[in-house]
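Handoff note, outgoing to incoming analyst
You'll be picking up this chain. Sequence as last confirmed:
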Amino acid sequence: MKYPSRHIVFAALALAGLQAQAQDVTALLKAADHYRMSADNLQVETQINVLNADGSPDKERRYTVFAQAKHQSLVLMQSPAEKGQKVLMLGDDFWLLMPSSQRPMRITPMQKLLGDASTGDVATMSWADDYSGTLVGEEPCSNETAGAASQTCQHLSLTASRKGVTYQRIELWLGKAKHEPIRADLYVQSDKLAKQARFVLDKPGAPSMVTEMVLLDKLSNHKETRVRYLNRKERVVPKEWLNPMFLSKNPSLE
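Most recent structure output, in case you need it:
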């Protein structure tokens, strides 16, 4: 009887180890995603505040975000300065719709909504669907924004698995015990550190959801952008709302 060579056995074990790690990372990301998006189809009332580098207030905007299954999202701009504008995301395609135009405009996920919050930051919420990665290890970490004490975190290194994402690479830290998101370093295509994110949770001792994401610009203006999730509720939008041509001809939805 011939037995497999030692090299084949080692290769098979290595492959099995990689597959197990990939499954572990996916499970961790799904757990972390649940703190940001508790259902496949949500309506999220969102407020964005921009602070200058000295901490003084700059701007404030309100948005209604319909985050839907299968990489579909619709953002309705609610503040007087932007009222009537919409952003639609279908997979890797993004459109900006202006109330004065019947032609949807193609944009990228990096297009800014306000301050350092891009359309991708607000319209997309799934790490498990958009990224693959590895578990780097366990490290002490803290969330300075939330004022929490240092804890043991799981450090994940993520790479985009599809083109229509805002960040090509993410270094993500999750709480070890409950897998809640603590902080993230966000890298653009050139592998430059674009932003650092901190996640504020509703109950630090027993978290159930992220109530705020704080973005610190690392490239240019060094402003702070606070994305607050004021209210979430399950909602499936009408199918026609996810059609750019329908939206361009129907400026008012609600």
